[in-house]
From TrEMBL:
Pfam families: APH
Species whose genome carries this gene: Chlorobium chlorochromatii (strain CaD3)
Source organism superkingdom: Bacteria
Aminoglycoside phosphotransferase domain boundaries: 25-252
UniProt-recorded name of the protein: Aminoglycoside phosphotransferase domain-containing protein
SUPFAM superfamilies: Protein kinase-like (PK-like) (SSF56112)
Length: 344
């Protein structure tokens, strides 16, 4: 859809709700998805317009964003409210939660080296994560009928093989090794499918999906929530491609998360098991992130994500060093990429 057409549709939807014509519509930098976002302003009051092709013609009662929004609000988790939507157009007008991403907030604190403040901040977001992970529901309904099962995990591994190894890094990897790496990914996947330990995960719980406001932390981009190991969201936040945290803080927050899980009766794992699955899940999550960054760079010609490839490769090096028995063979096959990380 052309930008001009989309803006006109936003104006029409805005007028249907507010009986006024917006004074400005500014396109915002979106996430690594097909959704497009705009700030719509009138008399200094803003809303966020979201165009989602997946919403076009969808049943609002089954549209994941609206289903999750309702569920999270029922559990007192801050999310942007929906002002109005039009499923036929695939458009929603959402509450404007401002411009302060948790990513930028944390980077500023890191710059000032106020590590006591940083620890408190991350305790807060871990508590928020556990609040989501504590939500239970009908296993036959969204989002509880979705999980990080074998099919989903292998889809994400395959996305990496296609867009990172056969695409972005094609000149650095012997294509004959890719089937061997796929076999290793299958073995790792089998270790991660542990449904008896599954909880609800945001699924993209990193520093770009939390908005910092005077009212607290607002979750965004939560429509892909599904069941999985509690470590999935933990590695997303603590080994975030967008913000590299001090190892001491990561260690402290892993322990804090584990204790929170115990207090909320969300795990029967030992702390050793928690750390074991943290590393394996972290490896998978980092591989998934690399696939996304490479897809954006090559297919979408969006180079803004390239800067996050090196730190993500660095995480993979660390996971392999921690779990050589489970990840060592995959690490050997990925060595040309990992050498790049070690020399940056």
């Amino acid at each position: 859809m052309s930008l001009r057409t989309l803006q006109q549709q936003i104006i029409t939807l805005y007028k249907s709700r507010y009986k006024a014509t917006p004074q400005s519509i500014t396109q915002l930098q979106g996430d690594a998805s097909t959704r497009r976002y705009f700030r719509v302003e009138y008399n200094s009051l803003g809303t966020i317009a979201c165009y989602d092709p997946a919403f076009v013609g969808a049943d609002p009662e089954r549209y994941p964003f609206l289903v999750l929004q309702k569920l999270l609000k029922q559990h007192d988790i801050l999310v942007p409210r929906t002002c109005v939507y039009n499923a036929a157009l695939g458009l929603l007008l959402l509450e404007d939660c401002g411009d302060l991403l948790f990513q930028n907030y944390v980077l500023e604190v890191l710059h000032t080296k106020k590590y006591d403040v940083l620890q408190q901040i991350y305790q807060n977001v871990v508590e928020l994560m556990v609040a989501v992970q504590s939500i239970k529901g009908n296993e036959h309904e969204l989002p509880f009928n979705l999980s990080f099962d074998r099919e989903k995990l292998l889809f994400e591994f395959d996305f990496f093989l296609q867009h990172a190894l056969r695409g972005y890094f094609a000149s650095e990897i012997d294509a004959a090794l890719i089937p061997l790496l796929r076999q290793e990914f299958e073995a790792i996947t089998d270790l991660l499918v542990q449904p008896e330990h599954f909880v609800l995960n945001h699924r993209d719980y990193h520093s770009r999906n939390i908005m910092v406001t005077y009212d607290g932390y607002f979750l965004i981009d939560f429509q892909d929530a599904r069941m999985g190991l509690p470590q999935y969201d933990a590695v997303s936040m603590l080994r975030d491609s967008y913000v590299v945290l001090p190892d001491e803080l990561v260690a402290a927050m892993k322990e804090f998360h584990y204790k929170q899980l115990l207090e909320h009766h969300l795990t029967t794992m030992t702390y050793y098991e928690y750390c074991y699955y943290f590393d394996l899940m972290g490896f998978q999550r980092a591989i998934k992130a690399l696939g996304t960054f490479c897809y954006q760079a090559v297919v979408k010609q969006n180079r803004s994500y390239e800067q996050y490839i090196a730190p993500t490769l660095g995480y993979i090096v660390n996971y392999i060093a921690e779990r050589p028995q489970e990840l060592g063979k995959a690490g050997g096959l990925l060595q040309p990429l990992l050498e790049k990380a070690l020399h940056q």
